[in-house]
Amino acid sequence: MIVETTALSHMFAGREVVRDVGLQVPMGAAMVLLGANGAGKTSLLRLLLNILRPSKGGARLFGRDSRCLGPEDFQRIGYAAESQILPGRLSVSAYFDYLRPLYERWDGALEQHLRRHFGLPGGQRIDLLSHGASMTLRLATALAFRPTLLILDEPLGGLDQDVREQVLDILIDRAGDTTILMATQEITDIDRFATHVAFMADGRLLFQEETGTLAARMRDVRVQVGEMWDLPATLPESWLTATRTGRTLGFIDSGFVSEAVLRQQLADCGIEIGGLDIRPLALRDIAVPLIRAQRGETGQ
Amino acid sequence: MTRPFIAMRAIFIKDMRLLWPLMLVCAALFLLRAGLPGPAGRLVETLSIGANIFLIVAAIQLDAPSGLRLDWRTRPITPVTLLVGKLGFLTASLLLPSMVADLLHDVIAGVGPGALLPRLLDDHGRAVIMALPIIAMAALTTRLLDAGVLGLAVAVLNAIVLSVMLTLAGQSPDQLDEQVLWPMVPVLAAIVAVGSILVLWLHYVPRREGAARLAFGITALLAAATQAGFILTL
What we know:
The structure holds two protein chains of two kinds. By secondary structure, chain A is of the alpha/beta class. Chain A contains nine helices and 15 strands. The radius of gyration of chain A is 22 Å and the shape is elongated. Chain B is an all-alpha fold. Chain B has one domain (3-228). Chain B is 81% helix and 0% strand. Chain B has helices at residues 3-35, 38-62, 79-108, 113-140, 144-168, 178-181, 185-204, 209-232.
């Protein structure tokens, strides 16, 4: 594991914003960390990077305690965050000039490629860049030294479609060579490069797994039911966002095993099955109900 | 060249690119200050002190040790490297130009070669000690305004303590000329210097921000208590 946390917790203003998180990111993975605003994603990433100190538990990156991370580790860790403060009055070129000598493995050719790809204007002051250009600058400076681990915090937030495509192209290009851990709420297109998904809510890590196994257990279910049927008061916990529209009951089954098991569950709930439609889900379609379900639980 | 040195040089160049206009203003004021006598000289002196404080705070806060979102936190730079880089920048942008300006002035004024070095070391040694608490205040805050408020709070606290003590000792501020206060200065300078260095060490080496704030508070109280104690013995 390139990143491993054990019962990692962090208190802020008397509240536990990260609670007992046990995250594991395998080498070469592209893990997307999902969760609504305030779920604890940013704090978790800051704990991993030794920006924040754990109040309990610990984190290891490359097998090293996150509290001991030093310059030699940051030679291998790229970080780009929407909230990162850059030296705004420097020009883009001057910022690259500043960073280049700091890294042993800075790749000048890759820097030029990234600057061209993102269309970063060398003479422009950083604080005068658009939001999209500013984010791509952060990403380019986090990638130009070919990091082993790339940690991204909301890199797609507020980007228009063109810039989003440019960012995703680069991430797809780097995935495999670089282990990626990306916290985001923007779930469009993430299945183009994600190999693993983790989900946080209210400071806790609810699950983490490979996208393949996640996709295998998640199904969009539509059940045609009898006319006089009422939605049961309690449904299985694995059924997310259950809604009834006319004679159709729709939900996401997050623990799908087989059609036979699902039919049995429906029967156990007293639901008479007129017709049953079970469809696999794209990662995006999985993430949306998960985030909505979490917002519902936390009252957001 | 070693990695820390490369990092310090990168920080130095970056800060120079960002702060060169202010550096020029400070250098110009040093030259003017050294050559202007009378009220005009005092005005330039005041402006020079203000510009120096502004440059110190700006340089430290460009890469504040406190901020969670600052770029340097996830770059291959240790806090100690950062501090040494900043101190190097301040030496080159403030201390050296000030020394050169004063040296030029002394040479033009006909100060003998034997007196040049002692004068320089004395004047600029005091300037360094006065700069230390400003550097500490800048390191404890992330914005110029916050540093200003902290500085003002310390100055007000000090003034209140002094006023109370002067009243208790039945002294008037007019009676306290430089000669009367002079014996207290080395003790006060030592407290301020040691306290400020401790603040910077706690903040940049073991990264204990809370302890650094506490050390700053204790230093301010000790400085005030020293002055109070001295006045009571007059």
